[in-house]
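wait is this the right file?? whatever heres the structure
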């Protein structure tokens, strides 16, 4: 069996070798097929260092990735062609594009590569074997991918929590290593879970409590403070007996939220909930302007929809973050895409740029908010490319795409 040490250096001299790189190029697109525009290229930019390192080492780099959920069949809406073009711009070199993943185009494209060249294969999820629940089907497809390469580098952190052919099974076929992005992500997540520098503050937002159960369970044992905003806050407020109007509410999670509040008190962990909320009685408003109102968190009108934490809460959250030495943030504080409801998310992001310590933005909507609201990404300690993978790691779950690289 091949050596599966984690570092790229373990793969030896890469000159002339075909290296299959699993990147995460799942970026948001806007527009019809053939006229698409990438609205956030953060994941493509994050993939560049590993691809460039391999190219500079003389490898023939074959990039495999997915885009969206095309359900195992080709769909022009989810073609990686515009992503390949953007990658070429960022690398400042021509990037070849294969119109399939393991078919004639892929084989011809890879065969034509010279040392240092880069190619992108078409969306790996156009193939049913990529996401099959049948181990044999998945491994058969991974074997086809493996015929295109001499080594494998896992650099798509946003998918390492998936047991999929181009993430997990391919590493059973080829000498394998972690890319720079995945190695950096894992290093940061370990700093969040093993002896984090204190005070350690966790900021959770987003729509649903149910999406964050595991991470709350695990981090209540590690954090000093837990700040809660976003849509999930209304289930906590309702658990305290408050009216939440038309706000998002998971009634089946009320008892769980009460349990978290009790456990936090027993552990001496401070759970900080908003004291005020920005609401609207007309949202979504269509062509009319939003009508934001600030109300006390315990006095939300029955006809109002909570859409952001209020200005006093934003100040309180920023104050709680000011002296933190470690912060993990996952989930916006409100509907940040609309400026009237972006204040809470903006305040949290701004506080993270000012703190003296490790600030980690946990991918997904939080990372998108940082970019959309105009913050300098370099002002944060780390912006994860994988929200789901980050959460599962912080829940204490094994990530299959990492475990397969670290196995004996």
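ok assuming it is, sequence goes like this
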């Amino acid at each position: 069996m091949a050596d599966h040490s984690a570092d790229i250096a373990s793969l030896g001299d890469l000159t002339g070798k075909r290296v299959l790189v699993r990147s995460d190029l799942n970026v948001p697109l806007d527009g019809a097929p053939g006229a698409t525009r990438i609205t956030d290229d953060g994941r493509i930019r994050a993939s560049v260092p590993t691809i460039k390192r391999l190219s500079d080492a003389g490898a023939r780099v074959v990039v495999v990735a997915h885009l969206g959920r095309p359900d195992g069949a080709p769909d022009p809406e989810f073609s990686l062609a515009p992503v390949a073009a953007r990658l070429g711009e960022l690398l400042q070199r021509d990037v070849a594009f294969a119109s399939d993943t393991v078919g004639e185009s892929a084989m011809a494209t890879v065969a034509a590569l010279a040392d240092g060249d880069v190619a992108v294969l078409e969306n790996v999820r156009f193939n049913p074997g990529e996401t099959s629940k049948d181990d044999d089907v998945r491994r058969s497809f991974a074997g086809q991918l493996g015929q295109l390469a001499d080594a494998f580098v896992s650099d798509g952190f946003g998918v390492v929590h998936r047991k999929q052919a181009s993430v997990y099974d391919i590493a059973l076929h080829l000498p394998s290593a972690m890319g720079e992005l995945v190695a950096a992500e894992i290093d940061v997540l370990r700093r969040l879970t093993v002896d984090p520098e204190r005070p350690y503050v966790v900021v959770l937002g987003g729509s649903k409590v149910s999406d964050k159960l595991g991470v709350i369970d695990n981090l209540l044992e590690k954090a000093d403070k837990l700040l809660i905003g976003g849509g999930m806050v209304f289930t906590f407020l309702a658990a305290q007996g408050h009216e939440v109007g038309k706000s998002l509410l998971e009634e089946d999670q009320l008892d769980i939220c009460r349990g978290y509040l009790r456990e936090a008190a027993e552990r001496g962990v401070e759970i900080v909930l908003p004291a005020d909320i920005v609401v609207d009685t007309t949202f979504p408003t269509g062509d009319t302007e939003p009508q934001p109102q600030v109300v006390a968190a315990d006095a939300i009108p029955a006809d109002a929809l909570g859409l952001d934490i209020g200005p006093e809460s934003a100040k309180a959250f920023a104050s709680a973050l000011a002296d933190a030495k470690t912060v993990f943030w996952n989930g916006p504080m409100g509907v940040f895409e609309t400026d009237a409801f972006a204040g809470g998310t903006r305040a949290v992001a701004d506080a993270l740029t000012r703190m003296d310590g490790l600030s980690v933005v946990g991918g997904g909507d939080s990372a998108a908010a940082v970019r959309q609201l105009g913050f300098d990404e370099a002002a944060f300690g780390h912006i994860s490319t994988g929200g789901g993978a980050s959460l599962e790691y912080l829940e204490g779950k094994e990530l299959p795409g990492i475990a397969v690289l670290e196995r004996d």
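Confidence is low (pLDDT under 50) at residues 1-5. so i think its the right one actually
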